[in-house]
Design brief:
The longest helix has 29 residues. The chain has a domain of about 230 residues: Transposase Inhibitor Protein From Tn5, Chain A, domain 1. The radius of gyration is 24 Å and the shape is globular. About 40% of the residues lie in helices and about 20% in strands. Strand 8 and strand 9 form a beta hairpin. The protein contains twelve helices and ten strands. By secondary structure, it is α+β, with helices and mostly antiparallel strands. Strands 1, 2, 3, 4, 5, 6, 7, 8, 9 and 10 form a ten-stranded mixed sheet that branches. The protein starts with a helix and ends with a helix.
Length: about 375
């Protein structure tokens, strides 16, 4: 089994993620589940790279090295309106930059889509390629990009995190004007831990459809993609440290992406009874994944594989009706989040070098 996984081409996982997204989108459309897009007529896609965690030193090429062994990385495309992973671009070289995967990414973006990415996606060739395909972008400005401002910054209002200003500019390549953009500055009220304020964004969305404050809010929502990767890593165990072969590790990551699309489909069915806002705010992905992990083995023993084939043959309308029936019987209280209260400041600790040890039992008795 391990040798077989080590030979699975990364494109296999990519196509599986795409196919699962298509099937999940069809089910969600039948459920009439979707979140409103921030810009009318345009579909937002969030772009982000992810380096897989280091694996164990199982391979002969790794056994004499103490350095962390990176099995690869990937650029993922996430559709926030449906919480679906719609595309995956894997790379076996753990040291390769995300930019090496960008040419393939451009070919998948369609007219009217808005790619939202961090500063690693602020590459002139990528932005020009997106514009040529009729897609738009919102990216954080990279210091290496060449931008010529066309006017002074003008105030555009406030968002939850600070004030917003904007100006028109032109991206240049080889000294020649290449693409007209808007440069948006978000002056954060409390600076980030790195102290970088203001934060500059670049976009080619028309101002009439996408005001500067709306662009700033959409970019701020990128943290949801980081949360989605955390769900993959923790609840769905996407990074298995024993899969040392790059092809095996990347295939495992793709399997977790497919599983996450299944999770998104299940939560879409739950949202029909509880409401999308309630699901987003209160559903615990960790508890849901733990429940599936706990009951899957028992269900596999109780129901042989052929008994599950009926779900593959059901028409879409019948399958959606089945999902809704099952969702009505879910014991919702078992899967609610239990957020902790505000953190308390740690108490000051005393230390006496003459008494480096204390008796826990005596201290407890003294408190009583």
């Amino acid at each position: 089994m391990y040798r077989k996984l080590a030979r699975v081409e990364p494109t296999t996982g990519t196509e599986w993620v795409r196919d699962s997204a298509r099937e999940s989108r069809a089910v969600m459309d039948a459920l009439a589940y979707t979140r409103p897009e921030p810009f009318p007529g345009d579909r937002v896609k969030r772009l982000d790279g992810h380096a897989l965690a280091a694996t164990e030193h199982r391979l002969k090429a790794l056994r004499r090295r103490r350095a962390a062994a990176l099995p690869g990385n990937a650029v993922g495309v996430y559709e926030p309106a449906r919480h679906l992973r719609v595309d995956l671009f894997p790379c076996e070289d753990g040291h390769a930059q995300e930019r090496s995967l960008l040419p393939a990414l451009v070919e998948t973006l369609q007219r009217g889509e808005v790619g939202v990415g961090d500063r690693h996606f602020c590459v002139t060739d990528l932005l020009v390629g997106m514009a040529q395909r009729g897609a738009y972008f919102i990216v954080r400005e990279h210091e290496h990009v060449r931008l010529t401002p066309q006017e002074a910054m003008r105030d555009c209002g406030r968002v939850e995190t600070g004030t917003v200003a904007a100006q028109r500019g032109v991206l240049t390549r080889a000294g020649q004007p290449t693409l007209a953009v808007r440069r948006i500055a978000v002056r954060l009220d409390p600076p980030t831990r790195a102290g970088d304020t203001p934060r500059y964004l670049l976009t080619d969305l028309p101002p009439a459809d996408a005001p500067a404050t709306g662009v700033a809010r959409v970019y701020r929502g990128r943290w949801r993609l980081e949360t989605a990767f955390q769900i993959l890593a923790t609840a769905l165990t996407s990074e298995i440290d024993t899969l040392a072969y790059p092809k095996a590790a990347l295939f495992g990551f793709a399997v977790a992406g497919v599983t996450d699309n299944v999770r998104a489909t299940a939560t879409a069915a739950l949202a029909q009874g509880q409401g999308a806002d309630t699901i987003e705010r209160a559903l615990s992905d960790h508890d849901l994944a733990a429940e599936l992990d706990a009951v899957a083995a028992g269900m596999a023993e109780a129901l042989p594989a052929q008994d599950w084939q009926v779900f593959r043959l059901l028409p879409l309308t019948a399958f959606v009706a089945c999902l809704l029936t099952l969702a009505e019987h879910v014991r919702w209280a078992r899967f609610r989040k239990h957020p902790r209260g505000p953190k308390k400041p740690p108490p000051k600790r005393s230390y006496d070098p003459k008494h480096p040890h204390v008796s826990t039992a005596r201290l407890i008795a003294a408190r009583k």
